[in-house]
Amino acid sequence: MVNPFGLRIVQALKLKGIEYEAIDEDLSNKSALLVNYNPVYKKVPVLVHNGNPISESLVILEYINETWKHNPILPEDPFERARERFWAKFNNEKVKDLRFLFHQEGKERKEAMAASVENLKFVEEELKGKKFFGGEKVGLADLVLGWLANLIDTWPPHDKMIIKYHAFYDKYHPAK
Question: Residue limits of the GST N-terminal domain (predicted)?
């Protein structure tokens, strides 16, 4: 299973043209290296730059943006930066990784599914008429929500995202 949080970092580094070394981690048997670099949470991703570890994907993305100024992932305008951060936070708190939805059963699954669909409608509405959250350029919010593209294979037209999600869900979780 691809880790969507690590994928954010890989995509940002590639957008910036930064060479990196990725180390795969078995999260069921965490390495001493991971525990050393992230002793608080003991989870991925961790970016080590100049010998200093940075953890938590949103923090790492902001660090990448501030460290390598070319191809910025946050706009210069404070309002537009705030909007990107809002949608990134919205993903982490409301959309999350829909794959975990499939581990729920019965009423709990139905309620979670309804909430997920409702939250995806907000995302669809925000993207209406735009290629990316920031307009014509990939930004922080796109990187954070990018796991949806990995999950669903390709982004459908924005007004079809909910329909494709339902089809994906039905494919992998047919009614019992």
Answer: 1-72
